[in-house]
Write a structure and sequence with these properties.
Layout lengths: L4 E3 L1 H6 L7 H16 L2 E4 H13 L7 H11 L3 E3 L3 H14 L3 H13 L3 E3 L8 E2 L2 E4 L11
Parallel strand pairs: 1-2, 1-4, 2-3, 4-6
Antiparallel strand pairs: 5-6
Helix pairs in contact: 3-4, 5-6
Length: 146
């Protein structure tokens, strides 16, 4: 087992969005644990969505300097680079599992990275896609998030 954990965009965003309440705290703790253990994995898609969301889509958008500072930390993580082949593979996953294309691309990235866990709020908690298990870290705030 690799112990790798792929992190979806929403978790990264909540860790920056102070208006997110308990999700802010949960996301920050999870990311701290993944940083310290060096088990966190991201993709180019996640990084792109992260920047766009923080600049325009959260209740109190961040300024460019704050986004650059956050991104500077995350680019040190293991990164899956999406290629044209990744899009083809995501289309197959989309059809097989009835996912959105973007979620299928996330699942595909987690699989390519060899991640055991995919932390995401957007997919079904506990769902398995091959060897990757989806965990919604916000599903139950009273238990451990790892």
């Amino acid at each position: 087992m690799s112990g790798k954990c792929f992190v979806d965009t929403n978790v990264l965003v909540y860790a920056q969005d102070r208006t997110a309440g308990v999700k802010y705290d949960v996301a920050r703790q999870l990311l701290r644990e993944l940083w310290e253990s060096r088990q966190g994995v991201l993709s180019t898609q996640v990084i792109q969505e992260f920047c766009a969301t923080l600049l325009r889509k959260i209740p109190r958008p961040l300024d460019y300097g704050a986004v650059v500072e956050a991104l500077d930390d995350y680019i040190r993580w293991e990164m899956v680079v999406n290629t044209p082949q990744a899009a083809l593979e995501a289309l197959r996953l989309q059809q097989r599992h009835q996912l959105s294309f973007w979620d299928a691309l996330i699942v595909r990235s987690a699989q390519v990275a060899g991640a055991e866990v995919l932390y995401s709020e957007d997919m079904s908690h506990g769902q398995r896609y091959g060897s990757v298990r989806v965990i919604n870290p916000f599903f139950d705030h009273s238990t451990s998030i790892a």
